[in-house]
Design a protein that fits this description.
- The protein is α+β, with helices and mostly antiparallel strands.
- The protein folds into 3 domains: about 70 residues; about 80 residues, OB fold (Dihydrolipoamide Acetyltransferase, E2P) (Beta Barrel); about 30 residues, no CATH class.
- About 40% of the residues lie in helices and about 25% in strands.
- The protein has 5 helices and 5 strands.
- Strands 3-2-1-4-5 form a 5-stranded antiparallel beta sheet.
- Strand 4 and strand 5 form a beta hairpin.
- Helix 1 packs antiparallel against helix 3 and helix 4 runs antiparallel to helix 5.
- The longest helix has about 35 residues.
């Protein structure tokens, strides 16, 4: 049984970039279409002359905002598509990053300062704000991340698919903790005298230990 070849990335769809955003704007600004419809239906009623122009104005504003956001979204998708098609692999050294306090679709917007370099790419520094998936945040502490770069335009994007997973952190075993001393100073001095009498400690060791016990009093 042979595996099917990996599907090549498809170019972003214009309709998918614009239509959901425009529809969302119409839902948020539903008052515009409502005024527009009411203005067309009751245009001969006194005191309703403002409905039609107001409805047209709000509806056009919703459309303009939707098209603006859709254009930004489509350009971003095209940029990623072009980089996946012909971008050069490179490395981005994370010089600094900090939270902006903004979340988009429940993902944090991070302010980054990077130094991008590669085998055939002249090093350059960039500052940008990127949405970093919460599950990818630990990778920022690694120090370097894979990116795709257009050497001519300097456009770049993180290449998360090539990022190495972070190994679980391991810690050295804790040193054994000595049991707390429960004997009195007198008992310890008596034991030390006994060790000296039996020549189990030298005179220097005896004097040092005795001074240490007395200092703890």
């Amino acid at each position: 049984m042979s595996l099917a070849p990996e599907e090549a990335p498809r170019p972003p769809s214009v309709l998918r970039a614009y239509v959901p955003i425009v529809l969302f704007m119409f839902v948020c600004g539903i008052v515009g279409p409502i005024f527009l419809i009411m203005g067309l239906v009751v245009d001969d009623e006194p005191g309703t002359e403002w409905l039609l122009p107001t409805g047209i104005g709000i509806t056009l504003l919703d459309l303009a905002i939707g098209l603006l956001i859709g254009t930004t979204r489509y350009k971003s998708q095209m940029k990623v598509y072009r980089l996946k098609q012909g971008g050069r692999p490179a490395q981005a050294q994370v010089l600094s990053f900090e939270q902006t306090g903004v979340e988009i679709n429940s993902e944090p917007l991070i302010s980054l300062k990077l130094r991008i370099h590669g085998d055939d790419i002249a090093p350059f520094e960039v500052e940008a704000k990127k949405i970093i998936p919460a599950m990818r945040m630990p990778l920022l502490y690694v120090g370097e991340l894979p990116v795709l770069v257009d050497p001519e335009s300097k456009d770049w994007e993180f290449d998360w698919a090539s990022a190495r997973p972070i190994a679980p952190m391991t810690f050295p075993p804790a040193a054994p903790v000595a049991p707390a001393e429960t004997r009195t100073a007198g008992e310890r001095l008596a034991e030390l005298d006994d060790l000296l009498r039996r020549d189990l400690v030298s005179r220097d060791e005896y004097d040092a230990s005795r001074a240490r016990i007395i200092a703890e009093l």
